[in-house]
Structures are given as structure tokens and as C-alpha cells.
UniProtKB/TrEMBL annotation:
The lineage of its organism: Eukaryota, Metazoa, Chordata, Craniata, Vertebrata. Residues 1-41 are annotated as: Disordered. This is CACNA2D2 isoform 3. SUPFAM superfamilies: vWA-like (SSF53300). The gene is CACNA2D2. Residues 294-472 form the VWFA domain. It comes from Pan troglodytes.
Amino acid sequence: MAVPARTCGASRPGPARTARPWPGCGPQPGPGTRRPTSGPPRPLWLLLPPLLLLPLLAAPSASAYSFPQQHTMQHWARRLEQEVDGVMRIFGGVQQLREIYKDNRNLFEVQENEPQKLVEKVAGDIESLLDRKVQALKRLADAAENFQKAHRWQDNIKEEDIVYYDAKADAELDDPESEDVERGSKANTLRLDFIEDPNFKNKVNYSYAAVQIPTDIYKGSTVILNELNWTEALENVFMENRRQDPTLLWQVFGSATGVTRYYPATPWRAPKKIDLYDVRRRPWYIQGASSPKDMVIIVDVSGSVSGLTLKLMKTSVCEMLDTLSDDDYVNVASFNEKAQPVSCFTHLVQANVRNKKVFKEAVQGMVAKGTTGYKAGFEYAFDQLQNSNITRANCNKMIMMFTDGGEDRVQDVFEKYNWPNRTVRVFTFSVGQHNYDVTPLQWMACANKGYYFEIPSIGAIRINTQEYLDVLGRPMVLAGKEAKQVQWTNVYEDALGLGLVVTGTLPVFNLTQDGPGEKKNQLILGVMGIDVALNDIKRLTPNYTLGANGYVFAIDLNGYVLLHPNLKPQTTNFREPVTLDFLDAELEDENKEEIRRSMIDGNKGHKQIRTLVKSLDERYIDEVTRNYTWVPIRSTNYSLGLVLPPYSTFYLQANLSDQILQVKYFEFLLPSSFESEGHVFIAPREYCKDLNASDNNTEFLKNFIELMEKVTPDSKQCNNFLLHNLILDTGITQQLVERVWRDQDLNTYSLLAVFAATDGGITRVFPNKAAEDWTENPEPFNASFYRRSLDNHGYVFKPPHQDALLRPLELENDTVGILVSTAVELSLGRRTLRPAVVGVKLDLEAWAEKFKVLASNRTHQDQPQKCGPNSHCEMDCEVNNEDLLCVLIDDGGFLVLSNQNHQWDQVGRFFSEVDANLMLALYNNSFYTRKESYDYQAACAPQPPGNLGAAPRGVFVPTVADFLNLAWWTSAAAWSLFQQLLYGLIYHSWFQADPAEAEGNPETRESSCVMKQTQYYFGSVNASYNAIIDCGNCSRLFHAQRLTNTNLLFVVAEKPLCSQCEAGRLLQKETHCPADGPEQCELVQRPRYRRGPHICFDYNATEDTSDCGRGASFPPSLGVLVSLQLLLLLGLPPRPQPQVLVHASRRL
């Protein structure tokens, strides 16, 4: 609120302070008037001896003082500006470093980054890398189809006939409770020796491939044994591929039967509990096995659905959702007499991780009641699929219905919506054990090109919710070569420890025929995949020529980043892809939306924009200029972009051909020179192949020196560009010590250290002892002060992070420093660049005292001003610190300096935590602007379970009334519960396994979550400004003014007289979003632009739909089933063989 116009001399309304004249007598600004700052005078600090800056006398009573006038505070601001500038000119050495670079002009060349040429070269290199993998994929897929076609099916094949390396054998042998150990079925399993391979980050054996079979599939079934038999021949192709391309990583064949054969062999990374890995649920397999899908899942929640059956349905829906990828669209609804969506989504939405999580949580709230109304469910589903006003996959369309049974076939609905073209496939799932006639469910599926499945118990869920992919693969198989196109996946976590990868996929088709003249087989055999580590792609991008704030990024058709410096997932779930949108990796704006759309469309482009960027430590926001250049990566779904600040158009390339000079400069890296030349930190870069990395910079420097004593900077095993630039910058920064720092007395000016950091990777801190307290990153490109200094003109203050602050009692013995840095801009002809950053480290306590003096009414000859009892004087920050609050706040809203001694330990904190009332006023008066964003890569501690005493998950718990009801005991629900309890005794870990532990890294203790981040940055106000915080009797005056050529705001305010005026507290701390970020229900109404794959295979006129899952239904016989369960308890657990029914046609 602006200061209202008042009559000069009138007393200010307020609490019982002695009446004083209204501040600023004379011409006063009206409401909202802002007065620009005048130019700075000569530096006061250069005129004052250090001792005169200490407070000499106690402050007199404030009764005779008034709030300082605006021109007085502007005068203080100019003194502060002059003081900072004077110190930086003397000690920063900006001008001297420019001269040093020019004096050594013969030792380096200025090279230009040409964005278009750079991005096209990198795109071409990535294309060549991926093309080599594509050729290997095609050889594998062709070989697999030929091997399977030549294979003769064996009905009587036995386990002992097949010899292979079982990747899980070692873990199972170590487990005395393993069923396979008890059966002694490891005679056919090879025992291999392994060697450590850094490329795989694992122990491998190049002479064999490994086999992984899901836990819920019986290894001894006929289908699995035949699969193992014919896929053995792939091992020779694996090895030949590696011979042709030694850079190949995992080569994998994922079979539709669930068998995975991968090369080279390595033991499976067994989790702590049960291993639920199934290749058919991996992101790369799902993408390669079928075209994109529009799916509507409808769930019967009528009263006939018993407690256990409803539990099975909920779990089935969640498992079904896990078979969908980001190329798919989905909605979930429940129905009885009416149909309604289970979540807030009213139409098909993208099946991304966050949307699927909303569905999974909503499904758990379904309640069974009412009567079954298939018509309502199917009409709702068809209406969803016919909605053309939304973004969707526009390829395979399907309805998945989960029910316990019913009589109605709803033929009229199919006639109205789906016949005669049958463009929508219908899959029906009979869930639970019951007496209902399933013929209508079978008919629905068979009449609509779908499939009928039965899910009698929890053990059948995973297999029967993924078998529908075989049906969707039929048009692809029938399309033949046209469908044999390599697709590249989203980024995801490799299950064998490679880290983040992308995978090239190629479907493998069954080429056999049942006999001469018979129809072509329409089964997909599986998917072939080859991994490419993101690190291998990153190596093709320029690392250090783009400067600290330049980078390369790549996105896919969904807008998800493949490469980006901000792609840093804190925790990964290998079941899900890593999906970070480009607009979430950066701060979103209209220009970036336009760039993203153009890249997804496969266009080339260039655009210079003004945009906001977040600092590396995520505490600050800077408004910067960036040049974006982008091109498509041919033969892939990716597009590559290059981002360059204008000052990174040029860079230095050292040319140290003089070996004597090399040796001279190298000597300044030796620790023996640190005492006289200052401590040197070197960036931990890959200077040479044989250089041992270390997180300890002292140890890394030692390793570097030892290696340099054996090789020269021109060695072929070293990166000559990095080494020459490092050694050149070592010499240049040493000359700065010699010319500027060595002869200066830092203590006179209350400096703890001076420093310089360079693009070449050198950070020199002077004096040597100051390195003990140096906490900045030794890699300048990863240091927040370095990157911010390049993006900001003038002096950038960086207070210590609040977590690093010491308590007030400890401040006397330990010094706390404030960094002040600025970029060195070098002009060579018409070429401008910023190759270095220099700065000083201020002693907090000494500069806090100095701050009081500079913001006081004394001159260089005066003692602190005294005011007689009968006169009126202006308050200042030194004498009146009991009544006047004076602070310096940086552009992020963090406290830098204060005239209040008790606030020194709060330096570095967000100012709202120090004075919430005043910070809110600064924000409301546009001194600060707020930016909110979401971190989708955060990791959060697991939530403690709320039902520690509950029954095993997924098991229906009957009520007391159920137990007393005779009818309940004769129902299928009672028997189904009994069966589940028996299964629980045998497969106890199945019910207790935590999904994160069952399928993820056993060491994972955190889960991914979304964190809301709030940053503040300077707003539109760039002048001197008076205002009042209106709180009635507790009102406060304040004055705020930006300090020229710095990132500081100078604020003078009355200290609050009472605490009755409560204001909202601005929050800056990162907070957890329980709803996973911005409201998903709102976001799906504004879907971001994306494109699906270019081709779609959802129809083929020759498709044979007669195989549609015709099963048999029978009422459960209590005697027979109890006998079977007793056999299970005696140690003969059942072996699931879902392929016997579903894959009956695989017998060839």
C-alpha cells in the first residue's frame, strides 16, 4: 500500500510512541509513486579507516527520532552500492583478469558454436548409433522367425532334455525354501563363471545367454520347454551381433509365453521377496507387441459381486492398467443399473503414470450394490470410444468387462454400436468362483473379435490380464513386413542395473502354417529388444564447449525428454517408464510450448526467447535469454534440441604447444604451490581414460597429478581439449594471484577469501587456508554461484544455505561467509564471451557491523549521531537498531545482512521465516514475483501402513454376520475365501510382498512423489519506494530499494510494536503434494500436444477370430476341491499353466 499524502509535520496515527513528524517532510510521493534512484557518490568505505566503522556509543533513547526520509535512505543505498563496487574492483580483479587474457592471447584460439551445424552433427551421430542397433535387431528378428519356423513341436519333451542357464538358479539354490530345490530340478541348469564388465555395470558371461522365467509360470510345461528348445539357437546370433558391434549392450528376446532370453548371461537381480518380473509387462515389450490402444474398462459392481470377487476385480483392473503405455488412452467405469466413471476423468485420458495412479486409487473405492446392467456398462463404453472431440490413440479400440456373470447378451447394443464392422473388440473376464453360466460372456467376446478369460483366483490375474495382447497382435502378424518397423521406447530403468536406457523393439512373428494351403498363422512370438544406455547417447553430445548454461536435449513424440540436464529421477520403479515432459523439465511458457510442438512434428527450427530458468540449487529464478535450435533425428521418434545463451556463442580453446610452458603452468597444480598461490580445485572431468575418478577432490587431484607424470597433455588416451584448457586456466588464475591478490590485506576489508573459477575447470581460492571452509562444487558448471553469475550482470550475492548455518553461540568461534561473484566478460574483436567468474567471500559478522555504519547518519568524521531531548532527528540503522529494522535481501528473498545481531544466525533463510509481515508486504507491493512449479522426480519416504493388524492384502475378510449366516457358508464366497487362505499358507510371501520390494530394487526405501516448489524473484519494481503495512494500531512504515548492479534489495522498516497484525506467511520450502501435483482432473482437460506412432495395425480382413477363449463352466465340487487343496498342503503346489488354454494354437 503506497504512503498517502500527509501534511508535513502531522503526527502519524499509531500506537503510543512519542508523536513525530510524518516521514519525508518536503515533496512527498503520492499513492503508488515510485522515485528512481540517483547515481552513486564516491565510496565511503575507501575514505574510512576500518576502526571508525565499529559502533562506539550506545544508542540514545528513540523518543526524539522519526522514521528516516526517503532521500536519506536513498543516500544509504548509494553508500552500500559504492562500498560493494569498491571492494569488488580492488579484490575481484575483473579488469585485471581481462588484461591477463589479452596478454596471453597467443595461448588460445576463439572458437564459435554454430548451433545449426552442431545440432545436425549430434543428431547424425545419434542416428548412426541407433542405426547399428537397428541392424542387429533385424538380424535377430529374422533369425528368430526362421528358427521357430524350422522347429518341430515335441509333445513329450522333458525338462532334462533342455540345457540352459537359468538366471534365477543361483538365487533359488541359495533359498532352502525354493520349490525347485526341493524337486531337484536344477540338473539341466548350467553353472557359469562371470567377469566384471564396466559397460554393463555387472558380471557377465559372453559365451552364453541367460533365461528368466516368471515365478508364476511352470518351467516344466510343454509350451515353455519347446520355447526354450528353439530359442537356444538365438545365442549364436547374439554373439555374432556383438562381434560386429562390440558396443552392443543387452540383447533380449521377450517371448509371448513369458520366457526371456538375454545376452550376455548374468545372474538375475533377485529381490528380497518374490520375483514378479514378467517381460510381457515391461514398457518396451508392450510398445513393441501391439499398436496404440483406446481402452474402456467396465467393472460390474452389482450386489451379486461378493467381497472376495470384488477384491479380485479391483486387483485385475490395476494389473490391466499396467499393460498400458503412454501411447494408449483409457477410462475406467463401474456399472450396475447405471454406469459411471470411477474417477474424476469423464473421457479417455492418456495412460501415463500419474493418470493410472488416479485410476488405481479410485478403483479401491468401488462398492458392490444394485443389480447387473450390462447394457448400461456397454453403452457407456461405446459412447466413450465414439467421442471424437478429445485426444486419443485412434487405433485399436476395445472394451474390457470384468464381471461375475450374467444372463444378458446385450446383442441390441452391439448391433447399434459395433456391427457389422466390429471396429471395437470386446474382452470379457469372468472373475471369482461361482455357478453362473458363462456362455453369454463367451458369446460377447467371440461376436466382437475379442477373447474370453476366467480369473478364478488371485494367481490367475497377472497372466489373464495381459494375454489380450496376443489378440491385438494378430493384425500386425498378418500385415507381415509392413509391420516390421523398429520403435524406440521412452526412457525407463533397466531391470539388470544399466541405469536409464531406451530400447529399440521389433516384433517377431509366427511364420508357420498348419498345413499346405492353410491360413497364415497370426500369433506374435514375442518382441526383440536391444538396449541403449542414455550415457552412451550423452557421450555424443558436446560437453564443455557449450559453457555452463548451454546444453543438448531430446524429446519423443509424447514430449517426454530422452536427454536433458534436468532429467534426474531420484528414485525409479523399473515397472514404469521415466516420463518427464519437456515443459516440466524446464519452466513452462508459450515459447517453449511452440518449440515442443515443432519438435514433436519433426520440424527444424531456431528461436531466441526470453525465459525463466531455475538455479541449480533450486532456490532462485533468473530471467535470461536463450537460443533454441532443433532438428529431428531421422529414422527415430526423437527430436534433438540445442540451447545456448548468447554469451556461449564463442569459447576458448587452449593452444599450449610450448611444452616448457605446459610444465610451468602444471606446477601450479601441485599442492606444494598452494600456500603461496592459493588452493586449486580441479573439476572432476574425464581428462584421460586411465584417470581414476573420486568424489574427494584432493584425492582426484592426486590421481590426476600421478597420471600426468606418466602421460603428456597431447597423449591419445587423453582429451586434449580438456587438458590444455585446464592447464591454461591454471596459469591464468595464478597470474591473477600474482598481480592482484597476493599483495592485498584481506583482513583490512573483512574478507575471508577471494576466488576465481573458469570454464576450463579451475577454481582457485586464496589464501590456501580458506579452502578448508570452501563448500562450493569443484565443477564450476555444477556450481550455482558460477552459473548464476554468467546469467546476471553485476554482483551476485549468495548467502550460505540455512542448513549450513551455525547457531549464534558458535558464530563467535566460527566464521560464516557470504559469496559475492561476477562474470568476467571478454571482448576480442567482435566476439564476446564469459570464460570465468571471480569473487570474494565476506565475513558475515564484520560486514553486518559495516552495514550498520553505511546505513547510518554519521559521516567519515562523525561519531554516531546524538539527538537532544527537545529536538527531532531521523533514525538510522546503527543508533536505532532497537526500533529500526534494516536488512539486505537477495533476489530469491533470502536474508543476506541485518542490523539486528540476533538475526545473524538466520542469514540465508527465506525472509518470511524472519519477518513474515514485512516479506508479505514486499510481495504485495510487487518487489517480488512468485513462481510455482512441480518436481515430478522427487523421492519421498514411504508412508507407514495404516492397517498393521489387517489380513493379507487382497483377501476378503467376512464379517461376524457372515459367519453366523448358513447361506454364506454354502456360497462361492465362503469357498473362495477358504481357497485363498490355503494359498496363503503355501505362498505366504505372495500376500505379504510389497510391490516395491517384490519387483524393484531391494535396497529401495523411498518412492517417487511430486513436490511443489516455490521460488521468488525480483518483480517489476526497480526504484525507491515507501509504503505502509496497515494493521490499525500495529501499522508499520517501510522503505525498499534495489541496489544498483547487485541482486540485493535494501529494506528499512519499523520494528513491529505488537503481534496483533497477523499476516499470511509466504512459503518457499519445497512441499509434498499428496495429490501428485496439480489436479490431474483439471490437467486432462488441457492435454499437452503429442503424436502417436505413425502407423496403426488394428484391422486385417484375413484375421481369424474363431479362437476367442471358449471355456467351460462347472459348479465347484466341494469334495473334489477340498481334496485338491489338501494335496497342495501336503507339498504339491500347483504349477500355473495358462499357456495350455490360451496358447493352444502355439502347438505347431
